[in-house]
Amino acid sequence: MSELRYLTAGESHGRALTTILEGMPAGVLVTEDDIDKELARRQKGYGRGARMAIETDKVRVSSGIRWGETIGSPIAMTVDNKDWEKWQKLLSVDPKDRDESKRVIKPRPGHADLVGMLKYDRKDAQDILDRASARETAARVAVGAVCRKLLEAFGIVVHSFVREIGSVRAEHIPTDFKELIERSEASAVRCPDASAEKAMIDLIDKSKAAGDTCGGVYSVIITGCPVGLGSHVHWDRKLEARLCWAMMSIQAMKGVEIGMGFDMARKPGSQVHDELFYDKKKGFYRETNNAGGFEGGMTTGEPIVVSVAMKPISTLMKPLRSVNVETKEPFKAEVIRSDVTAVPAAGIAAEAIAAFEIALAMREKFGGDSLREMKDNYERYVEHVRAR
């Protein structure tokens, strides 16, 4: 089976987050340290809250990897929540631990609280907010870490950086991919523009002092994809569309652009479409990449560029107006420990989710039960395309 799929389970303050990844071919080199490295990247970023000082995410792999190598069976991974020690009674499975006085009944504007309570007929927003929390992305980062190791075998690299936080926008973004990675990884806000980084940090500090939060925009760049991942023949096989859908599945995301995105709509076609050229050594190529690596829902071989807008975090230390769901009286929303901004961390989650989608497309295209078989199929296809 060449299909790649996963499920996650667990609540933000529950015992653990769990995920099962199925469809990874045998022979991919990956260790718990590889996964922990990505989990650690997710926890960094200026503006994160007290929760990140509590948790030091580590994965426990209980199946699917032996001696640092995938064996073809489902990969089961668990990330324990250290905060569980303080929440055992409140989130207990045992009905004897029920405490009605602890119910959260003042939903936060912008969060899943109220809609989830109405949809699932719950009297306590805790039942909703703990699963709706972006803490769930820790499990998806674990999945993405394994997918990265598959992509590495094909020379595919996934990286993100922060373009904007609030009203501050990076203006000086390196065109060299290696430099972009180095500068963004060295930045407290994962922004490669040093002057913008300073202004972003200042804005975060001001927002924190005001009890407010910040949103922003980050970009994910994927290099090394072959021509022809995805397909134009059906709506649900367009990889461009699937990638956008996946980005919007991350908590608090509100917009996605590919390449130039909305700016394309503001310019004439002569200024946006990537002209085609041919060279005997390079084959077909483009000198620009305004389309962001896609044409007709298929990869062009150019870098994939996806930019994502994240709204400000819903939990404010200076809460907005809300309504008590029981008395229907106006109230200030619940104040729950939170970040000032999580845009840098959201980029790491997006890298993981993008890695899964590209790995899925590679599995669909090249199949194989083992990495060796998959690479054989890949190399024959690449040679065929090169011969054209």
Count of domain modules = 1
The CATH topology label is Chorismate synthase, AroC fold
* Secondary structure: number of strands: 17
Fraction of residues in H or I helices: 25-40%
- The percent range for strand residues is 15-25%
The average pLDDT is 94
Report low-confidence residues grouped into runs of 5 or more.
Answer: none
Category from helices, strands and their pairing: alpha+beta
Give a written overview of the molecule.
The chain has 388 residues and is an alpha+beta fold. The chain has a single domain, classed as 4-Layer Sandwich (Chorismate synthase, AroC fold). Helices cover 33% and strands 20% of the residues. The chain contains eleven helices and 17 strands. The chain has helices at 32-43, 51-54, 84-87, 113-120, 126-132, 137-152, 177-185, 194-209, 239-248, 343-366, 371-387; strands at 5-9, 16-22, 59-63, 65-66, 69-70, 75-80, 157-165, 168-169, 216-223, 253-258, 276-279, 283-286, 294-295, 298-299, 304-310, 321-323, 330-332. The strands form six sheets. Strands 8-7-9-15-10 form a five-stranded antiparallel β-sheet. Strands 1-2-6-3 form a four-stranded antiparallel β-sheet, covered by helices on one side. Strand 11 and strand 12 form a beta hairpin. Helix 9 runs antiparallel to helix 10. It starts with a strand and ends with a helix. 39% of the residues are buried.
Please outline the helices and strands:
Elements: E1 5-9, E2 16-22, H1 32-43, H2 51-54, E3 59-63, E4 65-66, E5 69-70, E6 75-80, H3 84-87, H4 113-120, H5 126-132, H6 137-152, E7 157-165, E8 168-169, H7 177-185, H8 194-209, E9 216-223, H9 239-248, E10 253-258, E11 276-279, E12 283-286, E13 294-295, E14 298-299, E15 304-310, E16 321-323, E17 330-332, H10 343-366, H11 371-387
Antiparallel strand pairs: 1-2, 2-6, 3-6, 4-5, 7-8, 7-9, 9-15, 10-15, 11-12, 13-14, 16-17
Helix pairs in contact: 1-6, 1-10, 6-10, 9-10
